[in-house]
Design a protein that fits this description.
The chain is α/β, with parallel strands linked by helices and about 190 residues long. Among the domains are: about 45-110; about 115-180, Photosystem II 12 kDa extrinsic protein (DNA polymerase, domain 1, Orthogonal Bundle). It has helices at about 10-30, 70-75, 110-115, 125-130, 140-150, 170-175; strands spanning about 45-55, 60-65, 95, 105, 120, 180.
């Protein structure tokens, strides 16, 4: 068995000093302890809006405040001639610009909303949107939509306990990803 080399105190001191310098250099390059450049100030929630279709740069855009349709189109390289171009868009909106220069306004998909940290509205989410929730598969998602269609819109998240297969544990698991904002669109 070979023996490890023995280091003198001076050599150990140099190795420790070299290690400390490398650690500090790594920390400095990694910006530890500093706020990233361009990060929103604490307490400011960005507004995420998706644009697709006939624009130069389709995708999801972040704004500090709800943008107008015109602001979104200009940022994405879309037409300036859309009607209602001063209408404000809410976070989670999806705008599809058609070849004719008109637009369709809708909601981002459930998985995209959850990825961006946006809650799903329980009364407007489709079965496919609900499948993005942890522990909710296609059967349970369809059951949630059918319950909403049969009994009307949910008034609060606790109403989910009336749906077969949703218990306290599952409700606790999915609650952070849901909200009840609107009573319209419950039949979707």
């Amino acid at each position: 068995m070979s023996r490890l080399p023995a280091f003198s105190r001076a050599q150990l001191g140099i190795l420790i000093l070299l290690g400390a310098v490398l650690f500090l250099l790594y920390g400095w390059r990694g910006n530890f302890g500093r706020t990233p450049v361009g990060a929103p100030p604490a307490g400011v929630k960005p507004v995420f809006v998706e644009i697709t279709g006939e624009v130069a740069r389709p995708g999801v855009y972040s704004f500090a405040a709800p943008p107008t349709l015109l602001e979104l189109c200009r940022r994405a390289g879309g037409p300036d001639t859309l009607t209602d171009s001063n209408a404000r868009l809410v976070s989670g909106s999806r705008v599809e610009v058609t070849p004719a220069g008109t637009y369709h306004l809708g909601h981002m998909s459930g998985d995209r909303r959850l990825t961006l940290g946006l809650a799903l509205d329980l009364n407007t989410a489709t079965a496919q949107d609900l499948e993005a929730l942890p522990g909710i598969g296609p059967v349970m998602a369809q059951r949630l939509v059918q319950f909403r269609q049969a009994h009307g819109p949910f008034k609060e998240l606790k109403d989910l306990l009336a749906v077969s297969g949703i218990g306290e544990q599952k409700l606790t698991k999915i609650k952070p990803y849901l909200t009840v904002l609107s009573a319209e669109g419950a039949g979707r």
